[in-house]
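Researcher: Structure prediction, please.
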Amino acid sequence: MAGYRNLDAIDAQNKTVLVRVDLNVPMKDGAVSDFTRIERVAPTIRELSQKGAKVVLLSHFGRPKGQVVPEMSLAPVATALGDHLNLKVKFIDQCIGETVSTEITSSNAGDIIMLENVRFHAGEEKNDSTFAQEMAKLGDLYVNDAFSCSHRAHASTEALAHLLPAFAGRNMEAELTALEQALGSPERPVIAIVGGAKISTKLDLLFNLIEKVDSLVIGGGMANTFLNAQGIDVGASLCEHDLAETAREILAKAEKVSCEVILQKDAVVAKEFKANADNRTCPVTEVSADEMMLDIGASSAAELSSKLSSCKTLIWNGPLGAFEIEPFGAGTFSIAKEAAKLTKEGKLITVAGGGDTVAALANAGVSEDFTYISTAGGAFLEWMEGKELPGVKALET
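Model: Predicted structure follows.
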C-alpha cells in the first residue's frame, strides 16, 4: 500500500480519538473465552490513553443486522476488556447521538470509553455516509486498529476514515508490516503453504500466489484435487473432481512463471474419518478405493522440512491434513515446528493466517515462535489474494 500515518504522528493530548477495534470476541456462558483480540488492540488503547487522549472504542459484535439485539451488546466485552487489561473502561449503550456526545465531553483526558455495537445501526454495513458523519461528530481523530474488519467497506472502517484525520493503530501497523514482509518486498526465496479442504474457496489465492512466490506447497484436501488432475486415483479422499481442469490450469500457469508446485508423494490413509482410526502410510499412487488421505506422509514432511531450510520467507494459510483428529496432525505439526525453529534461528521469516492455521500452530505449540500470526481471517485471505481492502485503502495518505 501507499504511505499511511501511524500513532507516532498523533498529537493526542486532550483530543478525542475514535478507535475502530475488532472486539467480536468468542464468548462462552456470557464470558469472553479467548482474549487474543483484546490483547492485540491493548497497545494502541494504552498508548493513546497515556498520551492524554479520550479513547473512544468502536466495534461490532455478532450479526444483529441493523437491529438492537440485547444478546449482542458489547457491555460484557467492555467489562472483560477493563478487567483483562486492568484499565477502567466506561461503557455507553449507544454509539451516536447527544447522550454519547455529552458523556464523552464530560470525560477526562486518558479516559477509555466503549460505545455500543455499531452494527445495531443498519447504516454501518451499508457504509452510510450519514451514519459515519454522526460518528465523526464525536471525535477529533480516527484510528483504525481493526485490520480483520478492513476488507469490508463499512461506515466505521471506510467512510469514517475520510471524515477525520486517519491513522493506523499498532495492531494494523503490525499486520501491514508483516504482509509487506511476506508478499510486498520479501526476502527470497519465498515459499507458500496453502492447505485446507477445497481449492474452490482458494482459487484467487492460488492464482495470485503463483506470481508472487518461488515455491507453492499445496496440501490438505486441496492436494487431492491436484493429484486427481494428474491422473492419480485418490480413492475415497475428499476431492473436487469437477475442478480437475482448473487444477491443471493452475499447474500450467505455475510452470509458465517458474513457480515450483510441491505436492505430497506419500500420505497417511484411513478408511474412517475418526480419531485414532486404523491407518497406514503409503505412496499417493497406492491409495485403495476405500481409503482417504488424511495427512501428508513422513517422507513428504521430511522433504518439505528440508525445503524450508533453503528459503528465506514462508507464508502459510491452511493445514496439511486433518490436524484436529489424532493422529492426522503429525505432518502439519512437524512442518510447523521446523518453521518455528528456523525462525528462532533468524533464518526464516514466517507469516501465517487463517482460523484453521492459527489453531494448528497453537496445537503444535509454536504460536509464539513465528514472525507474525494474523488473526484476521477473511481480511488476511483477501490481502493474499491481491485484493484491495477498503479499510486499508482509506488510510492512505
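Model: The longest helix spans residues 36-50.
Researcher: Thanks, that helps.
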